[in-house]
Amino acid sequence: QFPFGRRLPCDIYWHGVSFHDNDIFSGQVNKFPGMTEMVRKITLSRAVRTMQDLFPLEYNFYPRSWILPEEFPLFVDEVRMMKDSDPSWKPTFIVKPDGGCQGDGIYLIKDPSDVRLTGSSQSRPAVVQEYICKPLLVDKLKFDIRLYVLLKSLEPLEIYIAKDGLSRFCTEPYQEPTLKNLHQVFMHLTNYSLNIHSGNFIHSDNVNTGSKRTFSSILCRLSSRGADVKKLWSDIISLVIKTIIALTPELKVYYQSDIPAGKPGPTCFQILGFDILLMKNLKPMLLEVNANPSMRIEHEQELSPGVFENVPSPVDEEVKVAVIRDTLRLVDPQKKKRKDVQQHIESCKNKVDTRCNYFLCYRCQTLEHVSEANEELLDAGPADRRECDSTQSPEAGLPSLCLKQVFPKYAKQFNYLRLVDRVAALFIRFLGVKGTTKLGPTGFRTFIRNCKLSNSNFSMASVDILYIDITRRWNNMGIDHKESGMCLQAFVEAFFCLAQKKYKSLPLHEQVASLIDFCEYHLAALDEKRLVCGRG
Ligand code: ADP
């Protein structure tokens, strides 16, 4: 541990809180710049909503949400309209303060007029969300799932999901929300930090009983009741990939600002905690994403009044040790070196016929067998592993990976959703000065001009008005006043506006896709022209 920083460069930096814990110019950091900001309740809701506008069906795993205080009038209006169209609809809403955690400041309401907008600590910016009234119950209790996800790389996108997670249980039997039970946190909120204070909390001494269990133990139970557990897993994988696809555009803006391309800097990876609620019909719903999930494998036990001791928690240990171990295996810098050696061997082998005798190659002779043993291990089942000779590879004798790659493995199924990523690439191209996250008026004008978007119906004066209108509105939302200019979300809104103008009758995602193609085409032509001129 280096609480005051470390001078010598490391292979891997394991930061406690965020990317900015230190100045780093090489190696790998276990945090992405901007991740903490991205997964705050308001930012996550905004990012998912942009995707819901484009792909409403694909993104129906996130409850309908409004941002307070600015969308309060919209919230009131929409709820009134929905009630008018369906008088039998008796909704409940959950209000969650932005940046809150561990259930802090959360409350349930039946009517929009019950939102506490002024005069209390709960009046700070928040998200109000439709409350999922019919969760799946086990032993009559509500529970949620904490799944660990490794974002190994942003470009190219690489995602791994842990095969097992935690199920965190409420400590009062669940009843659908009524005015009488709305305030009963032990019935409605699954947070460990809250329920631990209930007299009913049971510390588990194995993985399938008590108030915190492994997710696999729940799956076993569901499977024995005849539930389609395979489909459930595939829905969860799809939820995770889609959520990360919603987060990546803004993450890329942060990334290029902190680690500009072409300058020395580290690469990043990050373990995320996904909180998921299963509905009665087994549909998984995303509650939130944690950038800094707790990796504690102990809990406090009160030995005698006021005397506490840390004792091991077998459930946490079972799940979390595997996640950390596999993350380190996947980002192991030695593995990359071994891969490089493997590539070297391959290239030498290919040259055997052309007179390069690879047996004479010193590097290959000494390292070839290490590299091969390692690659085999990644695919080996448990039986194969234990037979491995520990002198062969540093990974010999380790259990098989609990982290499973889901992207790029399933990229083909999800790549069509990555439209905002392409909009972000246009945004980043026109940012101009390296290290910024906001687009100035000149950058926006250059974008319009280079992509040939201005014409007699859309003058440069209208371009300026569009820029000013949208930028001012986003800056008034009080998101980030450190820099002036147009943030990515504002640019995305302007882009959608332009797309709707240009391709009137299509559905929104087709309008946007067509405009992206149009812009990319003109920019490629421009690059080509510049290249030819340069050569000339
Ligand atoms: P926090 O970061 O404070 O834990 P969460 O968004 O995870 O905030 O919400 C806390 C708990 O409230 C969740 O663990 C879950 O039990 C419950 N909860 C949150 N959102 C909903 C919802 N839309 N419907 C039903 N329960 C919810």
Automatic annotation (TrEMBL):
Keyword Ligase: yes
GO terms for MF: ATP binding; tubulin binding; tubulin-glutamic acid ligase activity
Keywords: ATP-binding, Ligase, Nucleotide-binding
Gene Ontology biological-process entries: microtubule cytoskeleton organization
Record's GO cellular component terms: ciliary basal body
Record has Phosphoprotein as a keyword: no
Family matches, as InterPro entries: TTL/TTLL_fam
Pfam families for the chain: TTL
Listed name of the protein: TTL11 polyglutamylase
Species the sequence originates in: Himantopus himantopus
